[in-house]
Amino acid sequence: MRKKSIRDLPWTDRRALIRLDFNVPMRGGEVADDSRIRAALPTIRFLRSRAGPLTLMSHLGRPKGQPDPALSLGPIALVLGRLLDSEVQFVPHVAGPEAEAAVAAAEAGHVLLLENTRFHPGETGNDPALAVQFARLGDVFVSDAFGSAHRAHASTVGVARLLPAVAGLLLEREIRFLSLALEAPEHPYVAILGGAKVSDKISVIRRLMRKVDRFLLGGGMANTFLAAQGLDLRESLVEASSIETAGALLREAQDQFVLPIDVVAAERMEAGSPAEAFAVDRIPPGWRAVDIGPKTRRVFRDSIQGAKLIVWNGPVGVFEIPAFSEGTRDLALAVADSQATTIVGGGDSAAAVNEMGIADRFSHISTGGGASLEFLEGKDLPGISALQDA
Ligand code: ADP
Ligand code: MG
What we know:
Elements (H helix, E strand, L loop, with lengths): L15 E4 L6 E2 L2 E2 L3 H5 L1 H8 L5 E4 L16 H11 L3 E4 L5 H9 L5 E4 L13 H8 L4 E4 L10 H5 L6 E3 L1 H15 L5 E5 L8 H8 L4 E4 L1 H10 L14 H10 L4 E2 L3 E5 L8 E5 L8 E5 L1 H11 L4 E5 L12 H12 L3 E5 L1 H10 L7 E2 L3 H8 L5 H4 L5
Parallel strand pairs: 1-4, 1-7, 4-6, 5-6, 7-8, 9-10, 9-15, 10-11, 15-16, 16-17
Antiparallel strand pairs: 2-3, 12-13, 12-14
Bound molecules: adenosine-5'-diphosphate (ADP) and magnesium ion.
Magnesium ion binds next to helix 13.
């Protein structure tokens, strides 16, 4: 799946319309985490020195098709300006004549940021009229919003059909690394899946099953697999409706799956609760699995040893509670330590890695939660399909 990127085009005098993912966490009107804004810098810097004016757009939160001052992109223009060390002109309109006038008045390399695309009722419905308004703001459309690539909205797909449309550097990188997971060019290839539910990731398991050499399963989803083997998980999160599917997967590829042999179980799902490691068949009545146990951590470390390609999606415990985060932290370090090409997908896994401050020790951390899952399922993402083929 090779797509044209901004590196494949001449840019002189061409106005760039760039869809980014500035859907950042806000706290008290301030940007609480600017990593998504930083992730957009390479594309902006690349185009700033080559193209005409740069018009940026993004959504933020879920404003339901009408203006919501708490979700304005105004504060983001300030943060972006600081990071770029130059002026970013905030245009308080999603599109329309005022936005067109602002772009028309801008010089080459000047950066403008439009208002939250979802303030317009036509955005999420992919309204053709809004797409036409967007298309008036640029000569070339650049998509760098991987996190929104699985949604067919006016600013991701509608406008891409009206202008020459290419990938930005971040999107190009997402496609390059996540494609490795599907193409499995390097072996041993180890996939690690965690998170809460099997049903969220069943399609990913199916898609990767014949490609990986080993599947390490942890977190809530491993419970359902253990239950399929007849174990009593007590009060652990088990998805009753997926036990049968989990059993079928285990029978299909018995030797691929590595399941926990012990877990940290807790009396209650909260900080300060009594918690202790137990073999998976020895969880006391009334307790619940909240993390992988120390023996399993060693098994996982050993299984990762020597891998050439590792794809990790989903924390292997309730990592939001520090006492239950050790398994996930240990696993993150094991993956970071390995010599393999390492790819992390999923919002919570990425958050865990970022929180630990070890993000730069992974080959790639995907910026798209839902989008990276759909990509790993092998689905066509409309925001990527709409771009020109290389
Ligand atoms: P990602 O966003 O990385 O794809 P998910 O959203 O699938 O990950 O899963 C993350 C969630 O899974 C976290 O909220 C975590 O608390 C939960 N989780 C992990 N292990 C367990 C467990 N043993 N019991 C209940 N929830 C769990
Ligand atoms: Mg998640």
